[in-house]
């Protein structure tokens, strides 16, 4: 039974890290005059209203996108990675009031060109209905799949243009998602070794989460980056989210330097206690 609804968490610190990285990867792909596909294994609703009662219940955006938005509105000059991300959020909030937040599919939709394509998977029966409504009228650029993204991407890799960004970001509500993500990335690399892959995961007090980065590294990709953002000390005896990570295979060559510049600012703006920190590592062939 799937119960996770991202609207309760839209715009939180984990979204900030994931989407700031995603915007840079998409921007890099659009620099070449060659089409590509954006593939999202767990698309969610795609677009979120921050004034909706679900988002307001915990107001997680107020300690995520909120501090960045307020810093920029207050005249602070932010690192280029964060500024580019905020530019995409501003597209949905042209009057300067932060009311709407773009999920990963919507960010991609805003940035893709006429020849590029979106392929979006969503298994949750309620979420796929909202996603379909949000992308109504999008035309042939977008194809939605009502089903399991882990299984679905096997059928569409490699994509016809041989260029793609694949985002693998399950909720990890089910602990089997850790193993399924590793297997999915392994299968995908065998089918399409030159694709860009971005894997998001939560920092929680769970054995599977602690072992997850090592399991991804054991796949031995030639080029990878691994970045984590911790916003607070873990709650003693709790399973709450105290940070998140991104593991990127075949990253843009510019991304590491951009993260080195941006992560200290994220720690400063989003840190909730003295446990706030970041980690950045990687290998290149």
Automatic annotation (TrEMBL):
The keyword Acetylation does not apply. The active site is at 169 (proton acceptor). S-adenosyl-L-methionine binds at residues 19, 42, 104, 122, 148-149, 169. Its EC number is 2.1.1.266. Belongs to the RlmJ family. Specifically methylates the adenine in position 2030 of 23S rRNA. Monomer. This is Ribosomal RNA large subunit methyltransferase J. It comes from Ralstonia pickettii. The lineage of its organism: Bacteria, Pseudomonadati, Pseudomonadota, Betaproteobacteria, Burkholderiales. The gene is rlmJ.
């Amino acid at each position: 039974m799937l119960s996770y609804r991202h609207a309760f968490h839209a715009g939180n610190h984990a979204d900030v890290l994931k989407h700031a990285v995603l915007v840079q990867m998409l921007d890099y792909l659009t620099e070449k005059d060659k089409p590509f596909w954006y593939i999202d294994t767990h698309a969610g609703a795609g677009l979120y209203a921050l004034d909706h009662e679900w988002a307001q219940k915990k107001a997680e955006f107020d300690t995520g996108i909120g501090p960045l938005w307020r810093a920029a509105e207050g005249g602070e000059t932010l690192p280029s990675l964060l500024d580019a991300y905020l530019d995409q959020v501003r597209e949905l909030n042209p009057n300067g009031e932060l009311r709407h937040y773009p999920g990963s599919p919507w960010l991609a939709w805003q940035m893709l060109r006429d020849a590029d394509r979106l392929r979006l998977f969503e298994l949750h029966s309620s979420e796929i209905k909202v996603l379909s409504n949000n992308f109504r009228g999008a035309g042939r650029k977008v194809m939605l799949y009502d089903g399991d993204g882990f299984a679905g991407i096997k059928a569409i890799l490699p994509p016809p243009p041989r260029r793609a960004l694949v985002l693998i970001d399950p909720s990890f509500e089910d602990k089997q998602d850790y193993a399924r993500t590793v297997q999915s990335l392994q299968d995908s690399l065998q089918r399409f070794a030159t694709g860009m892959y971005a894997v998001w995961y939560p920092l929680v007090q769970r054995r599977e989460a602690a072992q997850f980065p090592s399991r991804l590294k054991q796949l031995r990709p030639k080029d990878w980056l691994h970045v984590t953002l911790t916003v607070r000390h873990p709650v003693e005896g709790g399973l709450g989210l105290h940070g998140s990570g991104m593991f990127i295979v075949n990253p843009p060559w510019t991304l590491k330097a951009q993260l080195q510049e941006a992560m200290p600012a994220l720690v400063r703006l989003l840190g909730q206690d003295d446990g706030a920190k970041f980690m950045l590592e990687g290998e290149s062939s």
